[in-house]
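Re: that chain you flagged

S.,

Sorry for the slow reply, it's been a week of failed gels. I finally had a moment to sit down with the sequence you sent. For the record, here it is as I used it:
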Amino acid sequence: MGKFTINHDVKQPVDEAFEKVQQVLSKGDELKKYDPKIDCSFDSASKTCKIKGSQFKADLQVSSKGSGSLISVTVDLPLLLTPFKGKITESLVKLFSKHLG
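Prediction finished late last night. Pasting the structure tokens below so you have them in one place:
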């Protein structure tokens, strides 16, 4: 499996950013087009989320960075899907930018 990390800075404070990420991922419409079996489990206390799909796993964490927040997603892909790393990165950054700026 190939692991890679995507980091995205947002202007919202940690609590607000995590709440928005939780809303977007819970609704799931945008990610389900890539994997209809996606499942997210959130931990509000630690501001983390474990994402599991049929072909991948990912860990998301929202942490404080300056006056805003940092969203960090570590994606674990099987070797056969590593050519899609760029597309996955682009899609997640676009998703976060759309909903969090």
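What I noticed first: Helices lie at 14-27, 29-32, 85-100.

Talk soon,
D.
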